[in-house]
Design a protein that fits this description.
Blueprint: H1 19-42, H2 50-74, E1 75-82, E2 85-91, E3 100-106, H3 123-131, H4 135-144, H5 146-150, E4 152-155, E5 165-167, E6 172-175, E7 179-187, E8 193-196, H6 197-214, E9 220-223, E10 231-233, H7 240-253, E11 264-268, E12 284-288
Helix pairs in contact: 1-2, 6-7
């Protein structure tokens, strides 16, 4: 196809005739047409070159639209205003972000990185291996925290691997004044993380409520919860774009407010950037590549 050599066709997220892109282009054409009309009215243009100018104008419009479409597919960051708060969606490394960083654990707050309970390649495993100096101290903190004790749902004495205390989804514990460790996924008997969609929504509501309790005016960075190994039972076809939109929606309906300069940042792993249509988020473009 015509644009196959411009960028990888498999990475096209914004279609050529995207309705929002067409609307944006229409606004540009209206402004340019007014200027062009004024020039034609007041300038003395020979009749013999008017056709060439018209053709040139059409070509410029086509090239302009293709350029806008190209950049719409290259956007890797959007800033969205929600309830006077700023939500930034971008690619990057969550550990390099300032402020508080949310790390998803399972509902037992397991810390056993053994490729069975927790895989070392996950964000959870990376956090434990690289950011936790004393695992026993972390386990004690989780178990002895008064608020966390109130979030215990049950003691699962039949569980063969990992801890036996199960916590309410969305429970948040502040660790080292830098990390928000949270109970995100359920765990089955085969140590597989999973969620039902109602669980995901419950998690998000509880998570934002707990963040509101501990964030103290600081910026908060979160991963795209649910992207990766988690299995959505009964809802297998959900994609990362839909998860992102649900995540943004959950913040919108929450009571939490981030006032400037604090903000919420949603980090998309670079390996998954081609799954996200940043243009459709309808924010303010803050980074293109």
């Amino acid at each position: 196809m015509l644009y196959e050599g411009v960028f990888n066709i498999k990475k096209i997220k914004v279609t050529l005739f995207n309705k929002d892109l067409l609307k944006q282009f229409g606004s540009v054409v209206s402004a340019v047409s007014i200027i062009f009309s004024l020039v034609v009215i007041f300038a003395d243009i020979p009749d013999k070159i008017k056709p060439q100018l018209g053709y040139g104008f059409v070509v410029l419009l086509i090239l302009g639209y293709i350029t806008m479409w190209y950049w719409a597919n290259k956007i890797l960051c959007q800033k969205i205003r929600i309830n006077n708060s700023t939500v930034e969606v971008k690619t990057g490394d969550i550990f390099s972000e300032p402020g508080l960083k949310a790390i998803a654990f399972n509902e037992y707050f397991d810390t056993q990185v053994d490729e069975v309970v927790i895989a070392s390649s996950t964000l959870n495993g990376t956090f434990i291996n690289q950011k936790v100096n004393d695992i026993d101290a972390l386990n004690t903190l989780i178990k002895d925290d008064i608020y966390m004790q109130e979030r215990i749902i049950e003691k699962n004495i039949t569980r063969k691997n990992g801890k036996d205390l199960r916590y309410k989804l969305g429970s948040v514990l502040l660790y080292k004044q830098e990390y928000l460790i949270t109970a995100f996924s359920r765990f089955d008997d085969q140590n597989k993380a999973y969620l039902y969609m109602p669980d995901y929504l419950e998690f998000l509501v509880n998570f934002w409520n707990d963040v509101d309790r501990v964030y103290a005016g600081r910026s908060v960075t979160i991963p795209l919860f649910g992207s990766g190994i988690t299995r959505f039972r009964g809802y297998d076809m959900i994609n990362d774009q839909e998860l992102l939109e649900i995540l943004i929606w959950s913040f919108k309906i929450s009571r939490i407010k981030f006032t400037h300069p604090a903000q919420v940042t949603i980090i998309i792993h670079p390996d998954k950037k081609d799954r996200i249509n940043f243009y459709d988020l309808k924010g303010g473009d803050c980074s293109v590549l």
